[in-house]
């Protein structure tokens, strides 16, 4: 991003706090306006959760966090903002008042999104000075982790909004026509209504309903959604067979979807009591952290598969990937990243196997620097690691920002010896070192051989330049 952009967050509750975190951790400056005297604490708590989870989705350098401030008035908050996100309570009269004040003080080219779960843009725009400026940008909780945003509004405006959201790692979905509750909440409401009936009729408890989701179809939905899953369920004949087989059930009286159970005090007590029995041993903050850690672990698993939400994360990493080091006459900065949740072990620190991954990734950067890149590998030549001598010096914890500094100790012929120091970026603490030996190989014979062409020239030049450097401090100790 060439210059820092500013997002004004109007309403800093559950959703506004999540938006603030999403923008801030993607390098935007953020101004929050909310009449609640507790707003700084509330946003601070959401931000703390976001800081320990969102950066851990990345396998490359994360953007530098933007600046956060709390405005004394809505007018001050929106004055210079590029994006304004309204996340006030779900009441049309409040939203109309907020939009009128926003439009009286914001730039005419600012984007004004509303987090509304249910209102249509035409309802939000009633009485607005510039109706086309207001659109629905409906997120999902936690906004800092879940990528999808439903965009509804004037085409030109939502296309501009889409570009911004792409840049902060989200998955904007432009809804074709406005409709109450957009797409996802209509769908979720059907599931919610049926769940209420199952509890009211004594068929299932809150725990049992959650179990059929989390041990079953919820996992399918997270990676393939509804239709791709049902296509497979149709067997070789796919979707047509699925519809032929299960379509008739739709007219059987299985569901009570058109009918809404009355939320009497008795039913509310039943649900709340069951929910207390199921989850009351955890505070809401604990549950949020459990949810976030699970989401990060699941999204990282999908990243390894380059599928669904994981494919989106890989695309974001490709955008944030730093250029390869070019100065060869000083130690090489080969890696910078955050330590994610799925790298932790039962001792509450990073598992030793992950150090191997960090140093392997750092070694790959040196390979790419000398031209031993995917094209070179496809031509049948590569490097194999034959030894890694790792020293674990200090504990590495969840969320630590680390970088690796690499020196080439030897680069002659087939031999490439690297010395990596893994350092915690925040306090410069040395966490681990690795003395790594790589040998150049032919992928055809699976035996060592001399590097060829430009790779040979570059590796020799790199080795010579680095041989003039003093030994790394940790080698001398
Ligand atoms: N909670 C969810 O899961 C969820 C998901 C998606 C969208 N939404 C939508 O997001 C919006 C906000 O919901 P929430 O769950 O964050 O509610 P919330 O009650 O947690 O937060 C609303 C915030 O707005 C503030 N507020 C009240 N009047 C205001 C005003 N005039 N100007 C500025 N701020 C004002 C309140 O002090 C409060 O902090 C709603 O439109 C809701 O439909 C909620």
Task: Provide structural commentary.
With 477 residues, this protein is α/β, with parallel strands linked by helices. It folds into three domains: 6-181, 3-Layer(aba) Sandwich (Rossmann fold); 185-281, N-(1-d-carboxylethyl)-l-norvaline Dehydrogenase, domain 2, CATH 1.10.1040.10; 322-476, Thiol Ester Dehydrase, Chain A (Roll). Helices cover 43% and strands 19% of the residues. Strands 3-2-1-4-5-6-7-8 form an eight-stranded mixed beta sheet, with helices on both faces. A five-stranded antiparallel beta sheet has the order 9-11-12-13-10. The longest helix has 21 residues, at 284-304. It is globular, with a radius of gyration of 27 Å. Bound molecules: nicotinamide-adenine-dinucleotide (NAD). Residues 10-16, 33-36, 87-90, 94, 98, 115-117, 138-139, 141 line the site of nicotinamide-adenine-dinucleotide.
Per CATH, the class of the largest domain reads Alpha Beta
What is the alpha-carbon Rg in Å? 27 Å
CATH superfamily of the largest domain: NAD(P)-binding Rossmann-like Domain
Main pleated-sheet profile: 8 strands, mixed
Helix content: 40-55%
- Can you count the beta strands? 13
Oligomer: single chain
Strand content: 15-25%
Binding site for NAD(+): 11-16
Function: Catalyzes the NAD(+)-dependent oxidation of L-carnitine to 3-dehydrocarnitine.
Main location: cytoplasm
GO cellular component, one term: cytoplasm
């Amino acid at each position: 991003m060439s210059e820092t952009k500013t997002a004004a967050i109007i309403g800093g509750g559950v959703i506004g706090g999540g938006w603030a975190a999403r923008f801030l951790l993607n390098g935007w400056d953020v101004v929050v306006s909310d009449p609640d005297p507790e707003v700084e604490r509330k946003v601070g708590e959401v931000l703390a959760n976001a800081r320990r989870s969102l950066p851990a989705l990345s396998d490359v350098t994360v953007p530098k966090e933007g600046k956060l401030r709390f405005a004394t008035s809505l007018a001050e908050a929106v004055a210079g903002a590029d994006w304004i996100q309204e996340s006030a309570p779900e009441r049309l009269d409040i939203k109309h008042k907020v939009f009128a004040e926003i439009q009286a003080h914001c730039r005419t080219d600012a984007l004004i999104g509303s987090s509304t779960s249910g209102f249509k843009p035409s309802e939000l725009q009633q009485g607005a000075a510039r109706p086309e400026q207001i659109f629905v940008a409906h997120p999902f909780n936690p906004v800092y982790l879940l990528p999808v945003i439903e965009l509804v509004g004037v085409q030109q405006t939502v296309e501009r909004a889409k570009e911004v959201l792409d840049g902060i790692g989200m998955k904007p979905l432009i809804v074709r026509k406005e409709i109450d509750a957009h797409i996802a909440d209509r769908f979720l409401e059907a599931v919610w209504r049926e769940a209420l009936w199952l509890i009211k009729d004594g068929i299932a408890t809150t725990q049992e309903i959650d179990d059929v989701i989390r041990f079953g179809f919820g996992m399918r939905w997270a990676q393939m959604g509804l239709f791709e899953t049902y296509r497979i369920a149709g067997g070789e004949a796919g979707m047509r067979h699925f519809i032929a087989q299960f379509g008739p059930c739709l007219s059987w009286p299985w569901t009570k979807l058109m009918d809404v159970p009355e939320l009497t005090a008795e039913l509310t007590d039943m649900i709340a009591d069951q929910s207390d029995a199921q989850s009351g041993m955890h505070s809401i903050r604990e549950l949020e952290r459990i949810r976030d850690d699970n989401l990060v672990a699941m999204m990282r698993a999908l990243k390894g598969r380059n599928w669904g939400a994981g494919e989106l994360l890989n695309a974001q990493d490709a955008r944030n990937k730093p250029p390869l080091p070019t100065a060869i006459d000083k130690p090489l900065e080969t890696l910078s990243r955050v330590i994610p949740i799925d790298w932790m072990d039962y001792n509450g620190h990073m598992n030793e196997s992950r150090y191997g991954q960090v140093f392997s990734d750092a070694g790959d950067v040196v390979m790419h620097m000398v031209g031993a890149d995917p094209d070179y590998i496809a031509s049948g030549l590569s490097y194999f690691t034959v030894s890694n001598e790792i020293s674990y010096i200090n504990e590495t914890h969840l969320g630590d920002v680390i970088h690796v500094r690499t020196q080439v100790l030897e680069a002659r012929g087939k031999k490439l010896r690297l010395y990596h120091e893994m350092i915690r970026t925040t306090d410069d603490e040395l966490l681990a070192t690795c003395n790594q030996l790589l040998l150049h190989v032919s992928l055809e014979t699976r035996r060592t051989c001399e590097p060829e062409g430009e790779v040979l020239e570059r590796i020799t030049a790199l080795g010579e330049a680095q041989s003039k450097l003093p030994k790394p401090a940790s080698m001398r100790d």
